[in-house]
Amino acid sequence: MDVAKISEAKDLQTRMERIGAHSHIRGLGLNDSLEARASEGMVGQSKARKGVGIIYQMIKEGNLSGRGVLLAGQPGTGKTAIAMGLAQTLGAEAAFTSIAASEIYSHEMSKTEALTQAIRRSIAVRIKEETEMIEGEVIEIQIDRPASGTGSKSGKLTLKTTDMETVYDLGGKMIDALTKEKVTSGDVITIDKATGRITRLGRSFTRSKDFEVVGSNVKFVQCPEGELQKRKEVVHTVNLHEIDVINSRNQGFMALFSGDTGEIKPEVREQINTKVGEWREEGKAEIVPGVLFIDEVHMLDIECFSFLNQAMENELAPIIIMASNRGITTIRGTDQSSPHGIPIDLLDRLLIIPTVPYSEDEIRKILKIRLEEEDVDMSDDGLDALTRLGVETSLRYAIQTITTSALVCAKRKGSQVEAQDIAKVYSLFVDVQRSTQYLQEYNEMYMFSEKQDKSLFASRASVPMSVINVTLKLMAASNKFQLSHNRSYGAIGSAFGC
Amino acid sequence: MAQPSEAALVQQNLMKAEVLAEDILIDKQQLIDLDRRRNTNREALRQITDAKKRPLAQQEKKTWLCMRDIFILLPTDTAESFISKDQKMLDEKINTTRDELKHKTSKLSQIEGAPDHSKPFFLNPINK
């Protein structure tokens, strides 16, 4: 018992230490009438969140399946965050599977097989098991062995709960099972009525003072309440993929843990679909359609898209949410270009939810949430500078700056992260725009450099340079922190110098 | 106008919940009582079958049956059929009480506005 507790505590610790990019998201942040508020870690994107909220209602009602949703928007506009929020809001209600589109390319498995597995992982079946069992504390076991030494044994077992007590006559097999389980008086046991299987739950608390020396694995439990013969109902929620794996190979369910499922024959799936259908007819099973989230969906190729097209029409299809940050681009595996890199026919079946870039105010709020999540104390000046950074470069760059600037702050033994720390980090780590600009300027000094199509980068780099200067000036003004250089790379030299 | 009717509605709801809760507690106690009787019946049946295994000379033709506070002397076979009939009735009664209990608890959580997790429990069992 103690051992379990320690490992649990450890588990909690490691979980708290790790902070992921979306660990501050706790839900969609919608109220009952689906109005978006700044809560549960979500900021802005109110329209997109409302749209996903409607999808959530669809999922909860459970009778809609086979719908597709596309979250489309520029990088860093919270597509994955919204999908994560949906997963959190759904909680245990429905299965949520998240894959990156690149995951499906493998030597061992065909693309469609990987997709099928992901789809079937997102559909769960709820079933109920019912067993009659006798549950009680053993008061006495009496076993009579025949004097000759051979022949059948007989015996009596006295069981009690807090409400009643009774005596059972025991046959030879039950006596063997009891001795095998080493059941003694004071143990709390259950006996399955149908199979006769005996399980020792532990020792009764009232007997805890019987001996001063007990083994470490002795578990003490309360004497059961109520009737002796109980009906136990257990509800399992298993996804179709698990059922597939259990039924597909000789090694059975162990493949579930090793992950070595291989390809599953379509016949097996067919059979399982029929069986599940039968159960549903008989009122034995309930289908819980879940959500399959495919991130970076433009990485799928044309074959996958046409497969998805067909798969979504299946009766047992989950709601498929895709996310893409591409504009009009070529569909993988073809020369054709199409919006979001998705063929028009599939696009036509999807509900498209756009995400828009965050406003300055929203960026500020998000950064504030991240500060809390990463447990970093920052001054208002610092947050101003960081927000500007988020606006001028990118939100991701600003978020990455949080941890690094906290470290810089700790280095100078400061208690609060100031604008000067951020300026220092800004000089140490370049963002995409500065890096691009530098490469353009010194392209010929690098190996294998080719003459670049200037127009490709010019539009990206020319604007930010002025912006950078503004940002630096702002930081310098706010904290009298002098940065005496024109080009950002100069700062790296000076930083290493000191 | 809306105020009193709302208050009455709340009161009505509370009353319903109270009645239902009381009902559930009674049912639970009844299950215990029924199971207790089922177990004593089972013990009695066992005694009778054991007695029948004895050599004929030691067997008694009649059996004392204790019903609440009266003892009745009955032919053994009649007593046995009495008890097994009672046993069958008890089994049925316990099962129906359990099913009703499930419905009642789900209804109670509905009245109280608590999340109802009982829905999957109304499925038919897969192993029967």
From TrEMBL, chain A:
<dbReference type="GO" id="GO:0003678">
    <property type="term" value="F:DNA helicase activity"/>
</dbReference>
<dbReference type="InterPro" id="IPR027417">
    <property type="entry name" value="P-loop_NTPase"/>
</dbReference>
<keyword id="KW-0227">DNA damage</keyword>
<dbReference type="InterPro" id="IPR010339">
    <property type="entry name" value="TIP49_P-loop"/>
</dbReference>
<dbReference type="GO" id="GO:0006281">
    <property type="term" value="P:DNA repair"/>
</dbReference>
<dbReference type="InterPro" id="IPR042487">
    <property type="entry name" value="RuvBL1/2_DNA/RNA_bd_dom"/>
</dbReference>
<keyword id="KW-0805">Transcription regulation</keyword>
<comment type="similarity">
    <text>Belongs to the RuvB family.</text>
</comment>
<dbReference type="GO" id="GO:0005524">
    <property type="term" value="F:ATP binding"/>
</dbReference>
<keyword id="KW-0547">Nucleotide-binding</keyword>
<dbReference type="GO" id="GO:0016887">
    <property type="term" value="F:ATP hydrolysis activity"/>
</dbReference>
<keyword id="KW-0347">Helicase</keyword>
<keyword id="KW-0067">ATP-binding</keyword>
<keyword id="KW-0378">Hydrolase</keyword>
<dbReference type="InterPro" id="IPR003593">
    <property type="entry name" value="AAA+_ATPase"/>
</dbReference>
<dbReference type="InterPro" id="IPR027238">
    <property type="entry name" value="RuvB-like"/>
</dbReference>
<keyword id="KW-0804">Transcription</keyword>
<keyword id="KW-0539">Nucleus</keyword>
<dbReference type="InterPro" id="IPR041048">
    <property type="entry name" value="RuvB-like_C"/>
</dbReference>
<dbReference type="GO" id="GO:0005634">
    <property type="term" value="C:nucleus"/>
</dbReference>
<keyword id="KW-0234">DNA repair</keyword>
<feature type="domain" description="AAA+ ATPase">
    <location>
        <begin position="65"/>
        <end position="357"/>
    </location>
</feature>
Automatic annotation (TrEMBL), chain B:
<dbReference type="GO" id="GO:0005737">
    <property type="term" value="C:cytoplasm"/>
</dbReference>
<dbReference type="InterPro" id="IPR030482">
    <property type="entry name" value="PDRG1"/>
</dbReference>
<keyword id="KW-0963">Cytoplasm</keyword>
<protein>
    <submittedName>
        <fullName>Uncharacterized protein</fullName>
    </submittedName>
</protein>
<keyword id="KW-0143">Chaperone</keyword>
<feature type="region of interest" description="Disordered">
    <location>
        <begin position="105"/>
        <end position="128"/>
    </location>
</feature>
